[in-house]
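2 proteins. here.
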Amino acid sequence: MSNNHIKRRLPPLGALTAFEAAARHQSFSRAAQELHLTHGAISRAVAQIEERIGVDLFLRRNRRVYLTTAGQRLLKTTSEALDALSHTVEEIHRHDSASPFLTVSCEPSLAMRWLMPRLGEFRERCPELNIDLRMAGGSIDLLSENCDIAIRRMDFGIKENYQITTLCSEWAGPVCTKVYWDKHIRQDVSEANWLHSRTRPNAWDDWKVSQGIEKLTPKSEQHFDHFFYALQAAQDQLGIAIGSTPLVADDLQTQRLIAPLGMQPTGYNYALLTRDDPNQDPRVAAFSNWLMAQTTPCYPVVRL
């Protein structure tokens, strides 16, 4: 009889998943936290496997567990199998060009101030494709986070196997409303209330270095948790913030904000990250081509 017809005598997948987490952490409690299960559920899953194969997978001593030799062997094989299974499922999902969903991870401030106002236009162009927008910044594992695309400011290391499509360069400079500038500043930016964000704590220092005025200090300062809040505070006439394009591109165009001292390149780019060439998937190609059409080169703003 062909081996293809031999019934596989494997423990349930759920039990193997529980064992893998427990073995990786060498802790039933930490495995339970990771999988959102109880300690008892992890213990029962491990006992089920041990009963099936007839050997102990853990040594239990002083409320701690240690892998046996058999447990180490099973951990290696189980980890490889689960990784392969996860990878295959994700590959099928990502390359299913008929899928009506495209999962996009985007930095929160960029998403709120630049991408979301434009998604309506993309929806009109591609009504059959639904964008699942997830807001996150920094490094990302597209496979484990089940994302097709990430849009990022390229200020961190990128995995070598990612495809990087540059969208635009970043320019930055002080931004505020014209009313605030005329009323509180009048050419002396040190008279302003400087708005900071904890997600870009060095923005003002970097700008001062670019201007050769490292010793300049403001009349007052105010700190916010996120870049988006600092820019909104500037728009609400609470002070002056370091704004960057493309995040303030729409505000500058409509004159909700002005950049009275001009803007300079920061040396960073915004880019699209994909695991494969964007043209391999029609969904990714449609979205990336649309994104490229939305971004235009950023130039310094004329000083007042």
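next one coming up
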Amino acid sequence: MTVQLRTYDSEQAQKILEDLVRVYLEIHATPPTPFQNEDRYRRQLAGHLTNPGWKLVTATENGELIGYAYGFPLPPHTRWWEGLQTPVPDGFTAEDGRRTFAISEIMVRLPWRRQGVARMLHEALVSDVEGRRMTLLVEPDNLPARTAYTRWGYREVADLRPGWENAPTFTALVLPR
């Protein structure tokens, strides 16, 4: 397997938005949920793309998009931590635009899973991040992802239910630098 990684900023990513949506829908096709739908994902992407420092890393093999990861530094007035269901230490949610890099998506198409592609995407995404920590959300029943994130050094910090319509409760994880 020869995987090529490419990094995009928000302007460059506009050219491949349809590919990103297509991969998202393929990955979340079974079982379908009211939360994981095309309209909501397009709105999520549109909102996230406006964040300063937004970054995307794609993985391709023979020109075919096999996965991607994207994230951005959390701004001072972020909504990322809204919906916390578990108490966190004082100051935990205080952001300044540099403290925390939020990874919104890491996804790899089924035929390429368990081959290190997600780890490659993650490492490329955060390789030049200046923040003191990274954060991501994972569905509690996604045991393969939770296991991988724990192996990568993430620790579970709280349950969080975002304000998106039909959003599930996620487990918030943090990786200190």
